[in-house]
Specification:
CATH class: Alpha Beta
CATH architecture: 3-Layer(aba) Sandwich
Shape: globular
Structural class: alpha/beta
Strand order of the largest sheet: 2-1-3-4-5
Number of strands: 5
Length: 250
């Protein structure tokens, strides 16, 4: 029996060493970035993997947010589409994101006021404009068919993007045109925020707020981050006060 016991002991020690070595060389979890955009990118990676972190929604969390106030690290201007909830897409919980949602991720006066509140009073350091694939508002604008109710007021914000692409990329048709409009509409909304909000522009020029733009892919769940044109911030300086006033509601 002694040889057997000895063999078992040696085997257990070897197994323990194997587990220890395996732990030492196993890939370590990727640290969560500290900067706002990095947090969103990391959160989206987790969402794509289906590895969402359960958000804290307990009574103590709610009490803290009530008594100490909100401190969101990003404003997300997103579409109202039911398939595109920013809190899920970016794996964030209560109090993390200041979300402004409207079909077509456009900005009107009320939306601008919400963004200004977050930037000025909550000191939110990042503004993200998030479009998404198969956007109904964009498709309706590209189709150009008569719309009822208040829908014409909505598509009027996207029409300049479509018209611009017709001039610069006349070969684009169908789904290719829709996809490009979705991307350019994100950039157009960022420009509109800078041009129409002196308050946000002031904070941006002071380096207190940054912009990012992305397109959420419905099937893959991944956010494609867009390159913002160089000199975008200069577009606001080219507008005179009189020209700015012409950007009101259509």
């Amino acid at each position: 029996m002694k040889p057997l016991v000895k063999a078992l002991g040696v085997g257990l020690v070897a197994a323990g060493i194997g587990v220890f070595v395996g732990q030492q060389f196993a890939p370590k979890p990727k640290p969560i970035p500290a900067e706002p955009l990095g947090k969103l990118q990391y959160g989206n990676e987790q969402f794509v993997k289906g590895a969402l972190t359960p958000p804290k929604v307990d009574e103590m969390t709610r009490y803290t947010l009530e008594t100490e106030g909100q401190h969101p690290f990003a404003v997300v201007v997103a579409c109202s589409d039911s398939r595109t909830p920013p809190e899920l897409i970016f794996n964030q919980g209560l109090g993390a994101l200041f979300v402004v949602r409207v079909a077509g991720n456009i900005v009107n006066e009320e939306n601008l006021a919400s963004i200004e509140y977050a930037v000025e009073h909550l000191k939110t350091p990042l503004i993200v404009v998030l479009g998404h694939t198969h956007c109904g508002a964009v498709k309706a604008t590209v189709a150009g068919k008569p719309l009822e109710g208040h829908l014409p007021h909505l598509v009027a914000h996207i029409e300049p993007v479509v018209q611009s692409l017709h001039r610069t990329h006349p070969h684009l048709k169908g789904d290719a045109l829709v996809e490009r409009v979705i991307q350019e509409n994100v950039r157009h909304t960022i420009r509109a925020i800078l041009e129409r909000s002196a308050l946000v522009r002031k904070q941006y020029e002071a380096g207190k707020v940054q912009f990012a733009g992305g397109v959420y892919h419905l099937r893959e769940g991944k956010v494609e981050w867009l390159k913002l044109p160089e000199g975008m911030e200069s577009a606001a300086h080219e507008k005179s006060p009189a020209h700015e006033s012409s950007h009101g509601e259509h």
